[in-house]
Amino acid sequence: MIRPSDLLRETPRGLWCEPGGFFIDPLRPADRAVITHGHADHARAGHGAVAATPQTLAIMAARYGEDFTQSRQSLAYGERVRMGEVEVSLHPAGHVLGSAQARLEWKGLVITVSGDYKRRRDPTCARFEPVPSHVYVSEATFGLPVFRHPDDAGEIARLLASLTAQPERAHLVGAYALGKAQRVIALLREAGYHDPVYIHGAMTALCDLYRDHGVDLGELRPATVKGEDGEKTDFAGKIIIAPPSAFHTPWARRFRDPLFAFASGWMGVRARARQRGAELPLVISDHADWDELTATIKECAREAVWVTHGREDALMRWAELEGLEARPLSLAGYEEEGE
């Protein structure tokens, strides 16, 4: 009798596929790795060979240099390849540009590792596609019933309303450099905001990469004190996107009376918003909320769900009540970069 652990099992280095001879998102350099997406808690440099979507490979090259791996294998969504005895394919996860779920099929058994995912539409990446599987490996970043994310457009409308109400203040929006920043900019454009958006220097390379892959971000300008003409820039009434870490540096103190906003699923938690110093918390998440997690498991898990890096107890209990086998995966090293 074939057991799921014969195909995929948890190890200190990450999820190991024995019949395929590869890890999925390994925590340390491996001879062969399948990478679900480009966030640093999943995509690390130093592997012998990496298989991923072309966008994820481009992100890894931008972050780690062209020699981030000895060899690379580019897989289009839905393309099926053999790795050892296993048929492997990648399917959209809706998390960030190039993000994928890894589907493994071996001797009639199908296990899908979702990586990080969200279900709602994102103008900067391919939308999530359900992958029915015997075993579905799901994240649980927001795996509690209290987490129900509001509509993205409504949160962007709150940002624009604040800009209208306080045009004398620069609006600094904290957003992670890969995925969240580009999504916020694209949502602003969809909401009809066509003024230049100013970005921290740490955003430039990845915004350029998104543009290279067909994502229209409109006019972006560097958030520097002096413009190209040498005149001091007046950021009153402007939107500036910056990594959260920049808020506590001298860079942020150049703006006169700024309004600090922060875009994250965690901004629905008041204590987190206060901790971040967010005057305008924007609940915009790149992860599935409770309703999206449970809907995904209903669609994708035929027999069992394995739950990782999150609040797994409530989600496992829910799955068991739905008649599914549920187990936690204690994969250390996954952070909140996508939020």
Automatic annotation (TrEMBL):
Which EC main class describes this enzyme? hydrolase
Tell me its EC number(s), please. Answer: 3.1.-.-
- The keyword Nuclease is annotated on this UniProt entry: yes
Determine the domain of life of the protein's source.
Answer: Bacteria
Signal peptide start-end: none
> Which Gene Ontology MF annotations are present?
exonuclease activity; ligase activity; RNA endonuclease activity
Q: Which UniProt keywords apply?
A: Exonuclease, Hydrolase, Ligase, Nuclease
The record's section on Gene3D superfamilies has:
Ribonuclease Z/Hydroxyacylglutathione hydrolase-like (3.60.15.10)
In terms of PANTHER family, this protein maps to: BLL1145 PROTEIN, CLEAVAGE AND POLYADENYLATION SPECIFICITY FACTOR FAMILY MEMBER
Its recorded name reads Ligase-associated DNA damage response exonuclease
Q: Which species does the entry assign this protein to?
A: Alkalicaulis satelles
